[in-house]
Amino acid sequence: MGFSKKMKDKEWSPWSAGVLLGLTAIGSYVLVGKTIGSSGGIENIDSILLKAFDSSWANLMYFKYQMPPVVSFQILLFVGMILGALTSSLWSKDFKFRMMPDQQWTQTFGPSKLKRWTMIFIGGVIIEFSAGIAGGCTSGLAISGTMQLSPAGLIFIAGLFISGIITTKLLYGGDY
Amino acid sequence: MMTYVVPIVIGFFFAFALQKAGLGHYHKIVNQFRFKDNTVMKFMMTGISVGLVGIYTLKDLGFLQMDQVSSTYILGNLLGGLLFGVGMALAGT
């Protein structure tokens, strides 16, 4: 199987994509001395916004020292992530503007766009807030943390699966 | 210059892997919680395994110092994780 054909595949096996993820994480540790993470970058952006609008929250210890208002490593990661996902999806012709998920959503929750967008917004707020509590997100804590055998990553994965399974069960009801 | 380029390249491959695993799709995430599609688990565990072996090998050979280990505070990690799962199941991201 040639390189070009592989790149045109819409989906790789999770194993090969996972190997690429692992190699990227090693590269990040060796080249920059930092671990991959996403949620921290959002908090840096928050911090920049708070400072720009002169909010009193900008003086909180958290936004002053923990998540300072600078263009951090993780904000630069975001730039690369947009380019990476765009390249991957354009190359395999998987790129599409989606207002709604492709499958499954409409069967369970109906065709309302408002419902989907409200739920993804609330979900996003919960995700970012809890990533702040836990000290990382799926990439920063679950993947990068466990990779270094930090108990934090494993505890986080356990918590996330417990509540994820329960929430999905509640949402899907009998169709679980 | 390099301080800007290297993180962007790392982010590029990170999101490339995520997109190729299909994790940009709502059903991939939610179906993991329904145990109908184990892509997320396979992808995460492969990534963790490869990274773990690589990082610890390079550390033993003296090429890097492990100074970025996420700090553990059990209550915070657990509470954060429990709340995080609710958000993930709602948004499917």
Automatic annotation (TrEMBL), chain A:
Q: Give the protein's recorded name.
A: Uncharacterized protein
- Organism expressing this protein natively: Desulfosporosinus lacus DSM 15449
Return the InterPro entries for the record. Sulf_transp_TsuA/YedE
Q: Which domain of life is it from?
A: Bacteria
The record gives the membrane topology as: Multi-pass membrane protein
Membrane-spanning regions, if any?
A: 12-32, 71-91, 119-143, 149-172
GO cellular component annotations, sorted alphabetically?
plasma membrane
Q: Name one Pfam family in it.
A: Sulf_transp
Keyword ATP-binding set for record = no
Where is this chain's protein located in or outside the cell?
Cell inner membrane
Main location per the UniProt record: membrane
Which family, according to the similarity comment? Answer: Belongs to the TsuA/YedE (TC 9.B.102) family.
UniProt keywords (A-Z) are: Cell inner membrane, Cell membrane, Membrane, Transmembrane, Transmembrane helix, Transport
From TrEMBL, chain B:
Protein name, as recorded? Sulphur transport
Which keywords, in A-to-Z order, does the entry hold? Membrane, Transmembrane, Transmembrane helix
Biological source species: Desulfosporosinus lacus DSM 15449
Which chain regions cross the lipid bilayer? 6-27, 39-58, 70-91
InterPro entries xref list: Sulf_transp_TsuA/YedE
